[in-house]
Amino acid sequence: MDFDLSPLWISLKIAAVSTIFTFFLGILFARLVFPMKRFRFLIDSLLSLPMVLPPTVTGFFLLIIFGKNSTIGRFLASLGLQVLFTWQGAVIAAVIVSFPIMYITTMGAFQQMDTELIDAARTIGYSERVIFFKVWLPLSWPGIAAGTTLSFARALGEFGATIMIAGNLPGKTRTMSIAVYSSMQGGNREMAYVWVIIIMCLAFCMLALMNFWSSRRYTTDERINPDRRMRG
Fold first, then answer.
1. How far apart are CA 200 and CA 164, in angstroms?
2. CA 155 – CA 15 distance, rounded (Å)
3. Spatial CB neighbours of 210, under 8 Å, sequence gap ≥ 6
């Protein structure tokens, strides 16, 4: 039986590229929203919306936004660029569906920071930019790493939005999840089983890595401030 590995490489490429965007966007928006007092719940809800929407609904909106008759679609076409039915379109879909995981996880990591250390950094004259890179990120890194891992896993298993905007083109946009669907549609259960096993193994590895980073977060918290948990 000839086994085409292209869905694996396509999935890894899409997940890796999308995670790079998700990593920076998640940290950026979490940093901007974290200090807000008023209407933060509305912004949190908006940024987290793709997490609860059906992926096909997300894909529908992406089709509307990047379709050839949309303003953005016509602008991209004038530049000779195309999003629909390309792996770049699959990257956009993966970014949208995995962003809430990175955002929420990073926000949670920021909320677990010891504010006394931040206040101390301000007291000795550090700028907010220096404090962010020297204090915020080191204190939050285990949580951010866990969110990055989960975002990669979510992008790796994306199906609904991807098939809506990128289609099912063998060797181009057919990911592992779509390969399972195509195999079942074609009556090839053996191939579907193989892809299911591969996806499950990768998902298990991602969860194990996420749990490792989560355990590092609590270890770091206790090392920096051993009586914090007792005060809580």
1. 23
2. 5
3. 146, 149, 150, 153
Cβ-contact 104, 46 below 8 angstroms:
no
Rounded to an integer, what is the distance from CA 195 to the centroid of its chain?
22
Cβ-proximal residues to 189 (8 Å cutoff; 6+ apart), any chain: 183
Residues in the chain: 232
Q: Provide the CB-side half-sphere exposure for 8 (13 A, CA).
A: 12
Average pLDDT of the segment spanning 181-209: 93
Contact 110, 30 (CB under 8 A): yes
Q: Which amino acid is at 194?
A: V
Core vs surface per residue 90-105: b (16+ CB within 10 A) or e: bbbbbbbbbbbbbbbb
Residue 27 CA to residue 38 CA, distance in Å, equals 20
Cα–Cα distance between 152 and 65 in angstroms, integer? 24
* Coil, strand or helix at 25: helix
Helix (H, G, I), strand (E, B) or coil at 53: coil
Dihedral of the alpha carbons of 153, 20, 25, 175, in degrees to the nearest 10: -50
Structure-block tokens of residue 115: 């504010």
In the chain, the amino acid numbered 146 is A
CB 175 within 8 A of CB 14: yes
- pLDDT at residue 31 above 60? yes
What integer pLDDT is reported at residue 228 of this predicted model?
A: 46
Token pair in block for residue 191: 């191939």
The model carries a pTM of 0.88
Round to whole Å and give the CA distance between 136 and 109.
9
